[in-house]
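Design request, tokens follow.
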């Protein structure tokens, strides 16, 4: 069947600050996970909710998080304490030479990374800014902060004893996520999680969300876990993007959407066979595509598709596409 985007309805996402800072530290996720989320946001398959508290915490803690781990990498030794019997080994000279080259390359990498950090131009910086630009921002001043203070005084979750940050974020989500919409929280520190099962949301928060929003809520420790449940076969962001565009053509309700999708589908190389077959069937079966196959942009797109995948797709599908082209 190939990759299917498991987003039958718009997904609502909240990414905690600790997840974003993790991409500067030692996160188990790779930056590809942020790219995938960005693609889903651009394609209108998900909404990322961004309380301004997250932005403030992120920019406040970014440099400290980076420097902590850069310093650890910078000071980490390669040789350590060397016993005499090792130093006198015939190959020890080669090891010393290797360690000198290692130190040179390490210093070079650190200098380059520190320069990018100062300019806020690391790959992580660029991806986080992209997410921020695509997110729905929430102003947390006034009642939301006041409610967080009261929650803290009552020792209600989320968050630690006197911490306001997560309580502000929670109040913002309660205030702005539409009624009846399921929410997915991606957070690593456990403040939203159940004490009995860290893979489940706190029972108190679940009850509050169900009562006030009439919907469900889930918590994920990593972005990759969330994406694996929704886009299980996507190897990278490009695959997600191409799959969403094919899906858009499959479901195109009018000519305008078809033209728009084809304009966005600027690169159709390296489609896997199941996805190529889906695209071929979309061209054959959706009248909002084949009725305008004579339009210059659609015709050029279909001809290029046949050139690249004519021998890959099912013979019947190829013949039907060729008939559509010859009839225009």
């Amino acid at each position: 069947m190939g990759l299917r985007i498991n987003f039958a309805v718009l997904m609502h996402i909240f990414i905690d600050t600790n997840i974003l800072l993790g991409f500067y530290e030692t996160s188990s996720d790779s930056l590809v996970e942020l790219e995938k989320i960005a693609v889903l946001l651009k394609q209108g398959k998900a909404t990322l909710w961004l309380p301004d508290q997250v932005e403030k915490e992120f920019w406040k803690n970014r440099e400290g998080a980076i420097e902590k781990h850069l310093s650890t990498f910078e000071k980490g030794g390669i040789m350590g304490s060397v016993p005499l019997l090792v130093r006198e080994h015939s190959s020890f000279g080669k090891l010393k030479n290797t360690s000198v080259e290692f130190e040179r390359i390490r210093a070079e990498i650190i200098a380059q990374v520190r320069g990018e950090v100062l300019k806020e131009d690391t790959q992580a910086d660029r991806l986080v800014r992209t997410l921020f630009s695509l997110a729905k921002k929430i102003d947390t001043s006034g009642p939301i902060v006041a409610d967080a203070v009261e929650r803290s005084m009552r020792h209600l979750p989320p968050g630690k004893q006197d911490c306001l940050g997560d309580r502000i974020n929670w109040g913002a989500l309660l205030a702005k996520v539409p009624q009846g919409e399921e929410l997915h929280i991606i957070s690593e520190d456990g403040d939203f999680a159940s004490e009995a099962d860290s893979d489940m949301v706190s029972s108190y928060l679940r009850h509050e969300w169900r009562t006030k929003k009439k919907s469900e809520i889930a918590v994920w420790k990593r972005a990759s876990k969330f994406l694996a449940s929704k886009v299980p076969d996507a190897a990278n962001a490009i695959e997600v993007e191409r799959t969403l565009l094919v899906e858009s053509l499959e479901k195109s309700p009018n000519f305008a959407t078809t033209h728009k999708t084809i304009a966005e589908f600027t690169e159709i190389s390296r489609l896997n066979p199941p996805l190529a077959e889906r695209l071929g069937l979309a061209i054959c079966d959706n009248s909002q595509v084949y009725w305008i196959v004579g339009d210059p942009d659609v015709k050029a797109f279909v001809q290029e598709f046949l050139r690249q995948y004519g021998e890959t797709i099912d013979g019947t599908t190829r013949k039907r596409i060729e008939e559509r082209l010859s009839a225009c």
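Comment from the thread starter after seeing the answer: thanks! The two ends are 30 Å apart (CA to CA).
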